[in-house]
Write a structure and sequence with these properties.
By secondary structure, the protein is an alpha+beta fold. Helix content is 21%, strand content 29%. The strands form four sheets. The protein has a nine-stranded mixed beta sheet.
Length: 290
């Protein structure tokens, strides 16, 4: 890897090298010299994914992609999710996050890793900014590998091997008490029965360990009494609040950002209500955590 003015060359796209500039101690980097409208060849894609695994969060400015282009670039990373709790449109792989005074935020302002209520949670999330309020609307990520490393060896040993149960609990508010909605809820419970994931996850590409429980979807530690489970989860949930492990990002229209859900959690600050913030999101289907 060549260093040039603090930027690392990771590959060549359409004859032009792209550079990755680290912007934070633990996670977060900006990609320069890459035009996503032109796509990525296989060599460039492999270099890009390696940089994503290394830096965990990659962002590119001034990438004014269409929705179709967003979906196309996302498919390079693997099959895409269709989110079960969002209405489908022309592009079912796109989740529209359009929040304003008539459509308040639903639970994105809670620390989480995407869709851990699935047996195969989200691998990568790709979020594109379209409309931003004048103030607010930042997203914050936490490096869960750094969190795990910060724990004492004895504590690491204690939680290694534990498993936790996950649930789509935040989306349950979408279902009313009517017979029709309760039937829909039962069908969703059949489709997404509570999966069990390791409390400490091993990254499928890097082999590094990270803490893999989150307050949005994790409901209990398997095999512990309720009070033991609650106490341990509360302690583990608190670890994301250490500022040294965080990266805070200020969006602007035309920015697209990629992040690795196996090694991070994120929180979308809801400090702009009732102003408007519109994003489009794709998500790559992941493997079963181990």
């Amino acid at each position: 890897m060549n260093e040039n003015n603090g930027k690392a060359d990771h590959g060549k796209a359409n004859g032009a090298a792209f550079q990755v500039e680290r912007v934070n101690r633990h996670l977060g980097a900006e990609v320069h010299g890459l035009d996503l409208k032109k796509g990525m060849d296989q060599t460039t894609f492999q270099a890009f994914e390696a940089a994503l695994v290394e830096h965990k969060v990659l962002f590119l400015r001034d990438q004014h992609l269409t929705t179709a282009e967003h979906v196309a670039i996302s498919r390079l990373f693997g099959p895409l999710e269709v989110h079960p709790f969002r209405p489908e449109g022309e592009f079912p792989e796109i989740m529209v996050l359009d929040n304003h005074k008539d459509n308040p935020v639903l639970s994105t302002d809670v620390w989480h890793s995407d869709t851990t209520f699935r047996f195969h949670p989200t691998k990568y999330t790709i979020l594109r900014c379209q409309i931003m309020p004048k103030f607010g609307g930042d997203t914050i990520w936490c490096d869960m590998e750094a969190v795990y490393k910060s724990l004492s060896p004895r504590f690491q040993e204690m939680i290694d091997g534990l498993k936790a149960v996950h649930d789509f609990q935040n989306f349950r508010v979408l279902f009313k008490k009517t017979p029709e909605d309760q039937e829909r809820l039962r069908k969703m419970e059949e489709l997404y029965p509570n999966p069990t994931h390791p409390v400490v996850r091993t990254h499928p590409l890097s082999g590094r360990k990270s803490l893999y429980v989150n307050p949005q979807f994790t409901i209990r530690i398997d095999g512990l009494h309720d009070d033991e489970s609650k106490a341990l989860l509360e302690l583990l949930f608190q670890q994301v609040h250490v500022p040294e492990f965080q990266f805070r990002f200020k969006w602007s229209p035309g920015t697209i950002l990629f992040w690795d859900n196996a090694s991070t959690q994120h929180y979308a600050a809801n400090d702009y209500y009732p102003e408007r913030r519109r994003m489009e999101r794709t998500a790559v289907i992941g493997d079963a955590p181990f």
